[in-house]
Amino acid sequence: MHSGHLLVASDIVKKFGGLTALDGATIAVPLNSFVILAGPNGSGKTTLLNVISGIYQPDRGKVIFEGRDITYTKPYIRAQLGIARTFQTPRVAYKMSVLDNVIFGYVSKDAPLDFRWKARERELVKRAFEVLKLVKLDHMWDRPASQLSGGQLKLLEIARALMANSKLILMDEPGAGLNPTLAHELFQFMRDLSRRGFSLLVVEHRLDIAADYGDYMYVLYNGRVLAEGEPAEVLSNPQVIQAFML
Ligand SMILES: Nc1ncnc2c1ncn2[C@@H]1O[C@H](COP(=O)(O)OP(=O)(O)OP(=O)(O)O)[C@@H](O)[C@H]1O
């Protein structure tokens, strides 16, 4: 089961004291795919992203990335292996330029100063520009990140993940706070990325929009997978409709 997948999180249980946030959830992300993780508030979506990125360790279950068991590996090791995470509120350095955000997002903040200096070498700057071109922010390279719009900040976070050569990008509600036009553009961009060698696992509430672009959807409910499959099909499942109404 699930052979050939980039990531498999199987039978994940995560408890917070007496509360069971995840209760045996299993999801898989194939190579080159855009997978949507949906579910009502409190169903365990963010907790599952945190278990996959290593912020939490599960009480039961396994996380397998490229065939390797990473259930108990530290977040920075997972980042080195190719797992990137973006957050609901973009975590960028607002006073730094767009270009420096891409470069220094790649070089860890606790890296020694001379290493950080080396990061400015030509090759890295060149690559940062290529990545910025990909997210269409190259014309803004010397502006402080504070001048970017909400949608552009999300693209900047994606740029940092691309700069780090990530294979799997975990995103928490990228569509939040964007107008419908921008949300469509962002999801289209994410779909394009998934056709260029990156896989995405995305927690999203704007399902009316995201469903058009995702390859596969999981719906969590009370910490378990209630339904999975092609997005349009999943969203017309009566159990799913009921879960979202409760
Ligand atoms: N660090 C924590 N300590 C205690 N309880 C937590 C913690 N993190 C999450 N929970 C609880 O676990 C459950 C699942 O939360 P989680 O944030 O994963 O849900 P979610 O599906 O992402 O919800 P939302 O859509 O509202 O973001 C909730 O009941 C939440 O209160």
Major beta sheet summary: 6 strands, mixed
The H-and-E topology, N to C, reads as EEEHEEHEHHHHEHEHEEHH
Number of domains: 2
The overall pLDDT, averaged over residues, is 89
Distance between the termini: 32 Å
What is the CATH superfamily classification of the largest domain? P-loop containing nucleotide triphosphate hydrolases
| Morphology | globular
From the 3D structure, determine the CATH topology of the largest domain: Rossmann fold
Helix/strand layout:
Blueprint: E1 5-16, E2 19-30, E3 34-38, H1 45-53, E4 60-65, E5 68-69, H2 75-81, E6 83-86, H3 98-106, H4 113-118, H5 122-134, H6 150-163, E7 168-172, H7 180-194, E8 199-203, H8 207-210, E9 216-221, E10 224-229, H9 231-235, H10 238-245
Parallel strand pairs: 3-8, 3-9, 6-7, 7-8
Antiparallel strand pairs: 1-2, 1-4, 4-5, 9-10
Helix pairs in contact: 3-6, 5-6
The chain binds adenosine-5'-triphosphate.
GO molecular function, one term: ATP binding
Protein name: Amino acid/amide ABC transporter ATP-binding protein 1, HAAT family
GO cellular component, one term: plasma membrane
